[in-house]
Q: What sequence folds into this?
């Protein structure tokens, strides 16, 4: 198999811009491209390949937006998406389905400034870390004005759950609760897929006659949700354990290859891969061999002067490699793609 040509509409200078995708033009170009390259519909694939795009949204990928993932280079997510789109176009005939995930938030959630107040009624600033000591000492408490809007009647019960929540994060060795800027707000422009990537996904859908299924996550008010599979703490308001939702995992595992890319390497990608690793470990460790992670299509969170998650995410990816995951690059996978036994 050889890599396909990049279509004529591809323009890397648009990777960091907001623009309207000309669907009809892309559609017509895709039909011509499909005919010229004699590409078959995805339903005919013998080797079924799923590309999972983790939170490739404006809020994380466009400079100037709320949580732009700059990495140490300062242009992390932008450069990642250039490589990602080239990978999609060059492997159109190999990728069966594309599943984009959408981080989806509302104003009143546990990681947004409006959720907490201090003794003087002030909200914490973005990037504030809320510790167990802060909650026990009441440095920050639940904003009493939002309780009913959240759908709860008992203020003390929710406040008690918050302590349970931050303690649970500590026990499970997860990141402490961070107050993020308002981001990925449902209905807002930051929530949308990056146009540059959306264009590539639409082109793929047309060429392969494959309908992308979008996965929405992150709207639970009392929990963060880095992983695309589960919230940070699997417990309800009464602190009763709840079962993880494995519907997406169960669907993904039936593909012959699962390829993942997206943002951010240190957070949603790392936690997603961790859940996938645990699921495979309990089911069949050999399944790790079908997972491919495009490390050159993801960047860590770096907040100058506050936090740099580069080293911790690099170590995590090394651990995943030891677990059997294929940690690779978009270029390496494209040029060294070997059909699996029984594949096309």
A:
């Amino acid at each position: 198999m050889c890599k396909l040509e990049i279509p004529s509409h591809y323009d890397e200078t648009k990777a960091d811009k907001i623009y309207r995708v000309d669907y009809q033009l892309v559609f017509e170009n895709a039909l011509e491209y499909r005919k010229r390259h004699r590409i078959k519909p995805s339903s005919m694939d013998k080797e079924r390949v799923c590309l999972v795009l983790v939170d490739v949204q404006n809020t994380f990928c466009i400079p100037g937006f709320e949580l732009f993932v700059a990495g140490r280079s300062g242009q992390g997510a932008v450069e990642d998406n250039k490589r990602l789109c080239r990978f999609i176009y060059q492997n159109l005939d190999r990728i069966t389905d594309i599943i984009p995930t959408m981080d989806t938030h509302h104003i009143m959630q546990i990681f947004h400034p409006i959720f907490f107040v201090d003794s003087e009624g002030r909200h914490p600033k973005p990037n504030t870390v809320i510790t167990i000591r802060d909650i026990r000492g009441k440095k920050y408490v639940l904003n009493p004005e939002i309780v009913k809007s959240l759908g709860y009647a008992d203020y003390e019960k929710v406040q008690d759950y918050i302590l349970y929540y931050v303690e649970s994060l500590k026990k499970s060795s997860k990141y402490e609760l961070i107050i993020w800027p308002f981001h990925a707000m449902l209905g807002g422009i930051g929530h949308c897929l990056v146009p540059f990537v959306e264009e590539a996904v639409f082109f793929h859908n047309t060429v392969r006659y494959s309908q992308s299924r979008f996965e929405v996550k992150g709207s639970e008010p009392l929990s963060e949700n880095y992983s695309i599979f589960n919230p940070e703490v699997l417990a309800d308001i009464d602190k009763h354990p709840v079962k993880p939702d494995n519907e997406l995992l169960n669907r993904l595992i039936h593909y012959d290859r699962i390829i993942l890319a997206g943002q951010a390497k240190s957070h949603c990608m790392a936690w997603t891969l961790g859940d996938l690793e645990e699921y495979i470990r309990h089911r069949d460790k050999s399944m790790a061999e079908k997972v491919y992670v495009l490390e050159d299509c993801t960047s860590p969170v770096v907040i100058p002067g506050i936090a740099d998650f580069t080293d911790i995410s690099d170590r995590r990816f090394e651990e995943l490699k030891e677990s059997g995951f294929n940690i690779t690059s978009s270029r390496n996978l494209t040029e060294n793609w070997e059909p699996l036994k029984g594949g096309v």
The radius of gyration is 21 Å.
